[in-house]
Amino acid sequence: MVAGLLTEIKAEKRDERKKRIDDIADQLDDKDRKEFLAALDDHTIPAVSIVRVMQRRGFKLSETMVSNWRRGLYVRSE
User: Would you say the pTM of this structure is higher than 0.85?
Assistant: First the structure.
């Protein structure tokens, strides 16, 4: 059965965001990857702090992406 167009569009949007977080994590060395993922999961660290640091390091990341990660809308694929 073929999924409906709206379902396919929504899945594509989610996958792109998920892919971006995965891409960022995959580009980091092991230590930085663990710390990046720990920061995403640490709700005491403001999303804006994570975004600013990652942007200074040349990565495209938004507060919305961090917030969505924290709300469980997407998780790192293994």
Answer: no
